[in-house]
Write a structure and sequence with these properties.
four-stranded mixed beta sheet; globular
Length: 146
């Protein structure tokens, strides 16, 4: 696989005020050895643009993996498919997660939805989306922090 450029590197849309989601993003920042996966909150301008191009995402409260963002081959994956897309993108031992594909998508997504309902109880909730550290800020789309 060729190394993506900043303009076509995938972007993971996530709930910016969710403690579990923020913890997952911090983990992904650490394990993405290529340092190319980028991130944007679901309420960001970038996410609104993606949703405008993919209206079926409107009102969805789910992680979204955006491949080739803004490009001709732009794709979006949500819920468990998004998590599997992240694992595929990371490669290495993370590809072992692909074994979850033997579980039908509707069952994987039911499990995802059940956890999503309690995620604030499990990981807490921020009042606002936390500001990423300067070391990783460039990996966040729409990270216009002073």
């Amino acid at each position: 696989m060729s190394t993506p450029t900043e303009s076509n590197a995938p972007v993971l849309l996530y709930d910016g005020v969710c403690g579990v989601c923020n913890s997952a993003v911090r983990t992904l920042l650490r394990v993405d050895r290529g340092g190319t996966l980028r991130f944007a909150a679901l309420d960001s301008d970038f996410a609104r643009d993606v949703i405008a191009r993919h209206p079926h995402l409107a009102g969805r409260d789910s992680v979204v993996f955006v491949g080739d963002p803004g490009g001709r081959a732009e794709t979006v994956s949500t819920e468990s498919a998004a998590m599997l897309a992240v694992a595929d993108y990371l490669g290495g031992c993370w590809k072992l997660a692909s074994v979850a594909r033997v579980i039908p998508a509707f069952l994987r997504d039911r499990l995802y939805a059940a956890f999503a309902k309690v995620r604030y109880h499990v990981g807490g909730q921020y009042d606002t989306c936390p500001i990423p550290s300067s070391a990783v800020r460039s990996r966040f789309v729409d990270a216009s922090y002073g």
